[in-house]
Design a protein that fits this description.
The protein is of the alpha+beta class. It folds into 2 domains: about 5-200 and about 375-380, Ribosomal Protein S5, domain 2 (2-Layer Sandwich); about 200-370, Alpha-Beta Plaits (2-Layer Sandwich). It contains 11 helices and 13 strands. The strands form 3 sheets. It has a 6-stranded mixed sheet with strand order 5-4-6-3-1-13. Helix 8 packs antiparallel against helix 9 (about 290-305). The protein starts with a helix and ends with a strand. The structure holds adenosine-5'-diphosphate and magnesium ion. The site of magnesium ion has 4 residues, from helix 3. Its EC number is 2.7.1.6. GO terms for molecular function: ATP binding; galactokinase activity; metal ion binding. One of its GO terms (cellular component) is cytosol. Belongs to the GHMP kinase family. GalK subfamily. Pfam families: GalKase_gal_bdg, GHMP_kinases_C, GHMP_kinases_N.
């Protein structure tokens, strides 16, 4: 059954009625630019074909009801919900209602059923897909005039302040603003975006996404520690954020940072921002294949300087490169999650098999791989 049909089925089973409409928002992979978002830097995500569908309709009794194929028993809350009231998965949905009201919009009470094929907790941003699908549904259902450029920050506030997860603006921007066949170049300081041509098929190339299926460990604590190191480094260097340090100033900046950990973290962020800019320049010039070495350099930097990889993702990168990939890197916040590899179109099966064989050699849980084509952002389904 398609995700769309699953959402309709979940809706009719939970509420005994047909939904008024269906809205979908995708998961994302970040082509390059990791941990740069909260340093006011640059990121370059594209939308996955996997997406979260919200089947929704008005709630006759003025009470919000939400359910998911993963949690079929409806959770209810009133329009004046506030952080702390709804916990668990429902917080992502109630958070969107709360954040819309905080932003001055009056979302209509709705009944919502969720279905998704975005893998949860794999760094593909199922949380932003959920928030974005719900936000888009509520805006349409209520005829709310929420400008597209304001939507990512509203969804981010839901996740930061209602759910309590201190994430940057990357995920929600990608799920809401990506376009098919493009990568989204986002300046996380100004929120300026540019749609970058990303037609891999035309270049005879493909992106293979490899889910390491490694259990996430200590993610929240490590994420917080990385953010803190970056803030400390910026403070020592006397800049608002590490975005303000360019590659030419890096050697002098590293000299001023006595602490070896801060030096490594800073080196990753500064060089990673430059790699995003270099990748964008190559894509604009249609030189897609040449981004491969930048992807691999990004991985090396995450492994050695930012220290956010685990054995499973390092092995996947090495195996993909050994199988002929033009470049490969972990994507997402780290400590597990997914790897992406830039490969010749038609080499997907061999590359996936090579990674799977390397995993078997290491005794790791088998990976899951698929070719990802840049899809559309959040939208109402016809
Ligand atoms: P990621 O965004 O990388 O997938 P997160 O931990 O940020 O991982 O978000 C995953 C959480 O989002 C899940 O634990 C769940 O609470 C919620 N979620 C995402 N998709 C769904 C869904 N289809 N149904 C119910 N909850 C979901
Ligand atoms: Mg998330």
């Amino acid at each position: 059954m398609s995700i769309r049909d699953e959402a309709v089925k979940a809706f009719t089973e939970a509420y005994g009625a047909d939904p008024a409409g269906l809205w979908a928002a995708p998961g994302r992979v970040n082509l390059i630019g990791e941990h740069t978002d909260y340093n006011d830097g640059f990121v370059l995500p594209f939308a996955l074909p996997q997406r979260t569908v919200a089947a929704a309709g008005p709630a006759p009794d003025g009470v919000f009801s939400i359910c998911s194929t993963l949690a079929p028993e409806p959770v209810t809350f009133g329009p004046e919900t506030a952080p702390g009231e709804v916990t668990g998965w429902g917080a992502y949905v109630a958070g969107v209602v709360w954040a819309l009201r905080e932003a001055g919009f009056e979302p209509p009470a709705a009944r919502i059923a969720i279905a998704s094929d975005v893998p949860l907790g794999s760094g593909l941003s199922s949380s932003a897909a959920l928030e974005s699908a719900v936000l888009t549904a509520l805006a349409d259902l209520g005829g709310l005039d929420v400008p597209l450029e304001r939507r990512p920050a509203i969804a981010q506030r839901a996740e930061n302040l209602y759910v309590g997860a201190p994430t940057g603006i990357l995920d929600q921007s990608a799920s809401i603003r990506c376009e098919a066949g493009r990568a989204l170049f986002l300046d996380c300081r100004s929120y300026a975006i540019e749609q970058i041509p990303f037609d891999l098929a035309a270049a005879g190339l493909a992106i293979l996404v490899i889910n390491s299926n490694a259990p996430h460990q200590h993610v929240d604590g490590e994420y917080g520690a990385r953010r803190k190191s970056c803030e400390e480094s910026a403070a020592v260097l006397g800049v608002p954020a590490l975005r303000d340090v360019g590659v030419p100033e890096l050697p002098a900046a590293l000299d001023r940072l006595g602490d070896e950990v801060l030096r490594k973290r800073t080196r990753h962020i500064v060089t990673e921002n430059q790699r995003v800019l270099d990748t964008v320049a190559l894509l604009r010039a249609g030189r897609v294949r040449e981004i491969g070495p930048l992807l691999t350099a990004s991985h090396t930097s995450m492994r050695d300087d930012f220290e956010i990889t685990v054995a499973q993702v390092d092995v996947a990168v090495e195996a993909a490169l050994a199988a002929g990939a033009h470049g490969a890197r972990m994507t997402g916040g780290g400590f597990g999650g997914c790897v992406l590899a830039l490969i010749d179109a038609g080499r997907a099966e061999e590359t996936a098999a090579a990674v799977a064989a390397a995993y078997a050699d290491h005794g790791f849980t088998a990976p899951t791989s698929w070719v990802a084509v840049a899809g559309p952002g959040a939208t109402k389904l016809p």
